[in-house]
Design goal:
Rossmann fold, six-stranded mixed β-sheet
Length: about 550
């Protein structure tokens, strides 16, 4: 629960510190006195966004600090998960700098707004008039039913599973689309791949084939040239080899006379050996050289296949064709892999569908069981609030669609009087009836909620007299379970509080300020009397105020 609130340099508040107690506290004040400012300051502490308009003095920073007693609310896991120091009296501070930047702290540790907002969900529920209108929203109605049904943990499990289910469905749809697109190209790709595979291409073979083709295609010219070369090299009379030998013999005679001659002899000997090797190689080439028209035809056909494939795929080498073949093979394999992935995802989706159906059925059954409980509790409370003939018709039906909270659709119908048909809340309930229904809902949820603090901001709109007294009694009864605040214009409700705070404006020189103070017994009598009769307090108003307080 909130134990104190300190505000400095915010809106019309220069400096304010106020302590709060458990139980039921009421806050009153004239319209425009600053009640909304108090709520605005509290909203900043709970993580709402701020701007420079929040500053009373634009040259100084705004500081809002709230103390919360949290020992009974099992919040240690939140602090550990966010690496924050846990204190049973936790302090939340919000600072707005003149530059417009803001900072937030939990127990003096800096935090971001998201962390602050997450913690605030466990601390305070501020109920505004806008929330009363939201009672007609189906999600709000489901939240009410699920609180009574105890569906919180089941719905959380369902939501995690639903998120995974949707992720699988998204992947499956993407794969099916990819498969459809691939199938259209598959036949053509398979044809291209078959062509390349049939060609039995090997890296570097084009150069070898082209060389072999040139040899076979020019075999006669090659044969003639080789034979001529061998003749010149090995002729017994004028052949090069014979001449080299004669030169070698001549140099052998003079080699002993000079190192230069010996060097020439060595060199001619080397040339003779090299030329002899060349001659042998030419001779072997001559022996290998045959006229083979069939082989020439085969090589020509293979080269034609290669040239045709290169032209089709717009490349110039066999290596590039092999790369294309590899890509086509991968595309075929990828299509097979897609089919496997589709099968795995389909199986996963079927399992998740089964689990989702089971969870949503459990949620549905608990909701159905809770509806009579909710209806009866609402009727009992609303009868005390001047609605003796109120009736509710709440119908829940399962459909095939997975919603964020299950597979149910809801009809929450209402009738305030005998003989009138059921209708949607927002269409048939008046403002005063909506206020009373919302109070009844909050009173019921207080029994199921572990929330420390609930603030009602003018929930008494549209009611007065005896009904207001009953509303005050209900809120006082709720305060046995949690800390309750009621911002009200009705003296009947203000009188029910264990503590009574007044918001008022004061003028200091040319400056207007909003202030909040805890009223003592005598001040409280006067305040309630003024709420009854206006500024001029009559004796009867004072007596009426004392009667309400007693």
């Amino acid at each position: 629960m909130i134990t104190s609130l300190s505000i400095k340099n915010y809106a019309l508040i220069e400096k304010l510190t106020i302590d709060f107690s458990k139980g039921f506290s009421t806050i009153t004040g004239e319209t425009g006195a600053g009640k909304s400012i108090i709520l605005g300051a509290l909203g900043l502490v709970l993580g709402k966004r701020a701007d420079l308009t929040s500053l009373k003095n634009k040259e100084e920073k705004c500081i809002i600090e709230a103390h919360f007693e949290i020992s009974k609310y099992n919040l240690l896991p939140f602090f550990e998960a966010n690496d924050l120091d846990y204190e049973t009296e936790t302090i939340i501070r919000r600072e707005i700098l003149p530059s417009g930047k803001s900072r937030a702290f939990i127990n003096d540790s800096p935090v971001n707004l998201q962390e602050l907002q997450e913690l605030s969900l466990f601390l305070i529920d501020i109920h505004s008039q806008q929330q009363t209108q939201e009672l007609s929203d189906e999600n709000v109605q489901f939240n009410i039913i699920d609180a009574i049904a105890g569906n919180k943990e089941t719905i959380l499990e369902y939501q995690v599973l639903l998120k995974n289910y949707k992720a699988d469905k998204s992947k499956l749809n993407a794969l099916l689309k990819k498969q459809s697109e691939s199938n259209k190209e598959q036949e053509y790709n398979a044809f291209l791949l078959d062509e390349l595979v049939a060609a039995n291409l090997k890296s570097g073979e084009q150069e070898t084939l082209e060389a072999d083709f040139e040899k076979l295609n020019n075999v006669e010219i090659i044969k003639e040239s080789i034979d001529k070369a061998l003749a010149i090299a090995n002729d017994e009379q004028i052949g090069v080899m014979n001449n080299l030998k004669e030169i070698k013999v001549a140099l052998q005679k003079i080699a002993p006379f000079s190192a230069d001659y010996q060097s020439l002899l060595d060199r001619i000997a080397s040339v003779t050996i090299e030329f002899d090797d060349i001659s042998e190689e030419i001779s072997r080439s001559s022996e290998k050289l045959v006229n083979d028209p069939e082989q020439l035809d085969l090589i020509s056909q293979k080269l034609q296949v290669i040239f045709s494939l290169q032209k089709k795929h717009q490349v110039s080498t066999v290596e590039e064709l092999l790369q294309i073949q590899s890509k086509l093979e991968n595309l075929v394999l990828e299509l097979g892999s897609i089919e496997e992935e589709i099968a795995v995802l389909t199986d996963s989706i079927e399992q998740k569908t089964s689990s989702l159906d089971a969870l949503s059925a459990d949620i549905h059954d608990k909701r159905v069981e809770s509806i009579p409980v909710l209806s009866q509790k609402l009727i009992v409370i609303l009868e005390t609030l001047g609605m003796p003939n109120v009736r509710f018709k709440i119908e829940i039906n399962s459909v095939e669609t997975y919603f964020p909270n299950g597979k149910d659709i809801l009809q929450f119908l209402f009738s305030a009087n005998k003989g009138t048909d059921f209708g949607l809340l927002k269409k048939v309930a008046s403002g005063g009836e909506m206020s009373r229904i919302m109070l009844a809902v909050k009173a019921i949820l207080a029994k199921y909620s572990k929330l420390p603090t609930l603030i009602f901001d003018e929930i008494d709109t549209g009611v007065s007299g005896e009904i207001a007294i009953r509303m005050g009694e209900i809120m006082k009864d709720m305060s046995k379970e949690m800390q309750i605040f009621a911002i009200t214009h009705l003296p009947q409700i203000a009188a029910k509080g264990n503590a009574h705070f007044k918001v008022f404006k004061s003028t200091v020189g040319d400056d207007t300020q909003s202030e909040l103070k805890l009223l003592n017994d005598q001040d409280r009598v006067v305040e309630i009397a003024q709420m009854l009769s206006g500024t001029v307090v009559s004796e009867s108003a004072l007596n009426h105020a004392k009667a309400l307080l007693n």
